């Protein structure tokens, strides 16, 4: 015995109504997947550059070079940060540029000249150490655990091979 529909809809219309919950579930799944992908991209991709920092002129002091470098890190201007480092230190600049959320309360101290042999440099090089303090904040999930967030005492080692060459950062670490 066939049962008659009492809601006035044909069998096809009733079947379409039953399929709609599947479409809703698929839509919710798609939106959830998109949200996860956007969130993962925000965590894993390099941060968006927020400004452009000018590379200081060739006769800039070590303090001016370090100040421009820190400004570049804050603006996520990786090209400038890399331009202010010597070839062997560019990976550090890139890493800092991509991993640091922000540096605040920056204080760049006066440089002091040190003998090149103390840092394994050629005796023909001029070497300057620039002490710095700042408050460090890492991007979410970009802290490798080697350096805590917060107030930090740091230092930058700069080198030039002649009095008319620009200072470039070759190393960094505890000031």
Uncertain stretches of 5 or more adjacent residues? 35-45
Reported for the largest beta sheet, the result is: 5 strands, antiparallel
- As for the CATH topology of the domain at 62-173, it is Nuclear Transport Factor 2, Chain: A
What portion of the residues fall into strands of 2 or more residues?
Answer: 15-25%
Distance between the termini: 91 Å
Structural class: alpha+beta
Radius of gyration over C-alpha positions, nearest whole angstrom: 28 Å
The first-level CATH class name of the domain at 62-173: Alpha Beta
Count of helical stretches: 4
The CATH architecture assignment of the domain at 62-173 turns out to be Roll
Q: Quick one: how many beta strands?
A: 5
Mean pLDDT: 81
Q: What gross morphology would you assign?
A: elongated
The helical percent reads 25-40%
What sequence of helices (H) and strands (E) makes up the elements? HHHHEEEEE
